[in-house]
Amino acid sequence: MTHPLERPPTTVLSPDDLGALGHRILSFTAADVTSLGISHVARATVRVSHDRLRTSNDGDELFINANTKFGQKAGVWWRVNRTDDTGLRELVAFMERMAREQPGDPAPREMPLAPRTYLPQTVWFDQTVDAMNGALYDAVPTLLEAGRRVKLHQAAFIGASARSVLYLDKQGLNIAGRATDAELTLTEWNRDGEGSGWAGASARDWRQLDATAIADSCQELTLRSAHPVAFEPGRRVAILGPAAVVQLVRAMAYAWGAYETIVQKTTPFWDPTTRHAKLGRRVMSDTITITSHPNDPDGGYLPFFDYNGYRGGMPLTPMTWIERGVLKHLAFDPDYAASMGVVPANDIPFSMRLSASDGVPTVPLDDMIAVCKEGIYVNRFSNVEVTDSISGMMTGVTRDGCFLVQHGKITKALKNFRFSDSPFLFLNRIEAIGRSRRTALGYAPPGPGNPRSWEQWPLEPIIVPPLMVNDFNFSGLAAAV
Fold it and tell me: Among 108, 132, 232, 307, which is most exposed with the fewest C-beta within 10 angstroms?
């Protein structure tokens, strides 16, 4: 029997295939410098809204990004998705003519030629590619069946991706990698339009995703959130589930940019009083440590700079950004690192792990609730925005499960709140911290409307715990469901 969503098998070019294409392009050019970044991405996604399957997309994209330059002239950047010899030769010849006409570059940026050492790559799973050709679509009815039985409105995202990438140049850079990722998320609403729930999971390995567990968790939250009542906003004890914490932590990544901190002075890690970065100083509770590691078992990422530009392909190393609340490092790009004498260069932590410091006991979410005299439990935040980069102040709304906690129990569902607070402040007010795990961030569509690769699905892994914090600022009620 033909599968209702059957389509040709999803495949992605191997690093060897990309290497052959890259060397073919280099053979066409006489430019002094030609740097290539080639990526091939295949995705399989299903999206459900208003109880119906709206889209089922399998597609792939091949991008070739290149920089061509002669001597000390400014380089010319170009992008193409053609692979035929005739088209590539014509394009290379055209770009070389443009490159020869460029003015001199007063500050040429060359790829450093120091020895490069790369960590092993651990983010590819054949089982995720296999799921793109079958199991992904079989998960759809499993994810939706329980909610339909009790007549809940539903929206869902089921997706898997496979990506192969290569960075190559005439100066000796040649590094390739490949990564898979997968995500399931489910939102459900009560029929009266009041009260909703959300659950989700993401993993590099499709086998780690449990559609039944996600469906059960979402249904429980949705039914419990029925008939919410208004509650006075204010500064209160907040118990934040991982899906709430992850939205805030993701929005913190910009703050580790060394150039933004030291030169632009636009992050919370710059001290205007001493006129120095806060390196070596405590900036958060000593119960917190924040790290990034390409081989993190709960996520990980390719062990090199992986975005368009002259830094693509440079090695990334494990980093401890915050150790027991102390700011240990900022993220120096290769050029700025060289100018400041900092080793190693590293990328802004789009992927990070926030966890309890060594020796700090972790507390399960249920136990946080059990010891709370009065507070608000937040399952998830949405529409989170940084409103002031210097303080890290953020705003957003609670979503899909917000409850009043009294005397160790959840007593009633609450209408949603808007919050206004800074994680760089409230992470100094930690009452309890749970066990960290990778948490789904949700779908962000690729394309011209969202051009920044680090904001497109799949988003880099963020690994966070539930948190119990004091004096969290619920600044007002929000008309959100």
Answer: 232
Query: What is the three-class DSSP state of 67?
Result: strand
Q: What letter would DSSP give residue 107?
A: S
Domain annotation for the chain: domains and CATH numbers = 15-220 (3.30.2290.10), 228-481 (no CATH)
d(CA 434, CA 466): 5
What letter represents residue 437's amino acid? R
Give the distance from CA 352 to its chain's centroid.
9
Mean pLDDT of the chain: 91
- 243 exposure class (CB count in 10 Å sphere: 0-12, 13-18, 19+): buried
* Interstrand relation of 276-277 and 417-421 (parallel, antiparallel or unpaired): unpaired
Return d(Cα 382, Cα 440) in angstroms, integer: 13
Q: Where are the alpha helices (DSSP H) in 39-119?
A: 85-100
DSSP reduced 3-state for 374: strand
Residues 196-209 pLDDT 10s: 999 999 999 999 99
- What does the angle CA 372 – CA 378 – CA 383 come to, to the nearest 5 degrees? 155
Name the nearest CA neighbour of 157 among 198, 192, 190: 198
C-alpha span between 142 and 137 (Å, rounded)? 10
CA distance 3 to 129: 17
Angle of the 15-26 helix axis to the 85-100 helix axis, nearest 10: 50
pLDDT for position 356: 98
